[in-house]
Amino acid sequence: MATKRRKLSNPLALAVMVLLTERSMHPYEIAQTLRRRGKDASLKINYGSLYTVVQNLEKHGFVEVAEVQRQGNRPERTLYGITDAGREEATEWLSDLLAVPAQEYPIFEAALSLMGVLHPDEVARLLAERLNMLEVRAASLRGGMEKLYETLPRLFLIESEFKLHMIDAEAAWVRGFLAEVTAGTFPGVKEWRTFNETGEVPEEYRNLEDGDVERP
């Protein structure tokens, strides 16, 4: 099942609509609330882009001006509320994202697909560096979550839990692959070394260019 093409694709727009289901807010308050709840770890949030997102949501009828506040000599503050169309859009969009795996293009995956141009020893050094950083990041996130679990329901930390799981999974894979490269047990590592040390493309690699290879 493919996801529906939406009028807006920025995940920040979805976050705004979800937040406005609680109550009407002005853009600055929306940004502060998202940051206070730690959503800036999953979403790129800055006031300028958020204001543009709110304007686009209003343009498509997903949010509307709920109130204009004026206090003394302070500038007016426009509060936005979600519309019925916005509630429907947020529900459908979120349901799609949860149910349908999207084809994404992680930069690490791209780097792995091109790493053959580097010597296996250099790749091993770089991956060892990456592994160390992943372990530090996981430890830091795990420690922060343990404290947050004391005051917040697990529901509000579930994305951090998923992130930690993904970091642990990546670290486990890198650790295993690194062990294979270091021990010389990775299939084709001899040809990989030869290519980087002599510049000569192994026969096995040249043969791959003669026909189509189906990728998973």
Automatic annotation (TrEMBL):
Mind telling me which InterPro entries this protein's record contains? Answer: Metal_resp_DNA-bind_regulator, Tscrpt_reg_PadR_N, WH-like_DNA-bd_sf, WH_DNA-bd_sf
Which residues are in the Transcription regulator PadR N-terminal domain? 16-91
So which domain of life are we looking at? Bacteria
The protein depicted here goes by the name PadR family transcriptional regulator
